[in-house]
Description:
By secondary structure, the protein is of the alpha/beta class. Helices cover 38% and strands 18% of the residues. The chain folds into two domains: 8-219, Alpha-Beta Complex (Spore Coat Polysaccharide Biosynthesis Protein SpsA, Chain A), CATH 3.90.550; 223-284. It has ten helices and eight strands. The longest helix is centred in the C-terminal third of the chain and has 20 residues, at 265-284. The N and C termini lie far apart (49 Å).
Amino acid sequence: MDRGRPEVSIGMPVYNGEIFIREALDSLLAQTFTNFELIISDNASTDGTESICLNYAEQDSRIRYIRQRENISALPNFQFVLGEARGKYFMWAACDDKWDGNWIKLLHMRLTGIKNHAAFGKLIQIDECSRPLVHPANNNSFEFTGSYLKRRTSFFLEFEGKGKANLFYSLFRREALVDVELISYDFDCVVLFDLLKKIEFVSVSDVRLYKRIHSSSEGNAEPKTFRRMLLSIFMLEVLWHNFHVSRKYLTHSRGREKLILSLLVPVRIFYSYLFYARRVLNTLSCHPVNL
Length: 291
């Protein structure tokens, strides 16, 4: 690797990640794009994470392993790896995910020559054994471009269950993240919503991030059973979720935009009910149902 500034910085916050971190590291180190640094911030793990990371760092000079003296909690750890980055581009990487071999290469190519953009591929949810899961977020294209109002409104209307929060793991121009203070947020989608004030997200269809769903992952909070999905519809959980989340977005809006988004809350709720209805119908049917 060039001993000067790397083109891409990858930030991997980790806490007790010994089960899956080898797969994540192998996937990143096998990328066809090689001009990157990998910053691992170990949040005072109590398992074998430290020895695993040190072993990898000894074998590959692109890895910079840093162990926190005490657990600084998750968001500050994500902020820490961003602060350590030196590359022109930056991406966060979860310690239990995997990536297609051309992930960085194709996202980097997509961003070359254009400003104020971030790039993301497609998503496949996998289980603890790396087997693909049936999930509504799979293979969605996430693209939010156009005017300030258009891209923020489109993001607002996109239901969270379709996976838009995973844009957090896009490849960014690092300069777009300079003033991001993660500690001031309590919801990852609002981070992205605020970033859409100044950047566009573009989609690359040929590469995939394999997002692992397991007992300790945030994605596992999604309803797991048919009964749970029915309760989501008939016990007004969808309605509560939308008002709760919409309020977070509206807190980060002003003036005309805030008025427009307020008027669109019923549309958000309608799309959300369609989303859950489709999941229920697909559970009852052997064949996917398109609504």
